[in-house]
DNA-binding MarR family transcriptional regulator
Amino acid sequence: MQGFFRHYLSVYRPLITKLNVLLGEYDLSYSLWQVIFFVKNNGPSTLVDISSHYNIEKPSITRSVHRLEEMLLVKQIPGKDRREKIIELTDSGEEIYQTCRAKITELEHMIMKDIPENMLEAAFQVFPLIRENLNNKEGK
Amino acid sequence: MQGFFRHYLSVYRPLITKLNVLLGEYDLSYSLWQVIFFVKNNGPSTLVDISSHYNIEKPSITRSVHRLEEMLLVKQIPGKDRREKIIELTDSGEEIYQTCRAKITELEHMIMKDIPENMLEAAFQVFPLIRENLNNKEGK
DNA sequence: AGAGTATAGTTAACCTTGTTAACAGTTAAT
DNA sequence: ATTAACTGTTAACAAGGTTAACTATACTCT
């Protein structure tokens, strides 16, 4: 099983490139998409929510959110704690989410074409386990 | 099987971070390691060899190779075509290859701990197939 | 043999996306 | 009431990719 990382990583650049081309049509990139995706699927969120979920430092999230605000895909809503900035998708944010989501799913299908179901299944399940192990090592 | 990309990508940052910490002990990073790895496993190579294997543009490879030369891990050897720059590992390059290779394999084992063999096997086989599909879409 | 074309590598300028450090404003704790 | 902790922002930086333009060398082909 030597070479696991190498095999894993060799997929990364072609994949992220394709995703960025796809999202680029809507002036998005995967890093922006991640924010949209999170807010859509977790409801109104603070920057810390997003930051800690993806393990990305706050300044990076600040930047992404600012861009999404400029693009009017995301807006701030009032909250009790006035330190926090709570954001949610705007209507056009929702729209673009649906569109991109569909396109990404389509791409997923194309990429998994002709690959046996059971293999994909197994791979699919492996990722969370690996991430678990990666995190555990962290705390050790 | 929706969410395949997301699951895949959620592993990337923790993994590459760990690798970069590991390699950082030897003043390397994964991008430099890729060059060392390629040259070790493919014998003396030109920058174009490396560039086209990883689908990374030449200037990026130029930069990496220059760094490795400064670190004396890689050296140029004479070739017939005087446009080409053919490089191979130096002795200390070989040494550091062996060391890092061992460390990476060790990390691989730790990360795959307690994950059923058959799942890993399947995942392992899936990566090349996915890359294939990604590339085919390219040419279409 | 010479003109034009193709290829290898380099340099410079730039972009994206991450990081740290320092700070302001707000809330919580003692 | 002070002090401590937390949220978000800004600024400066780093890694690692890109494109465009260039030099030097090799190849092609009448």
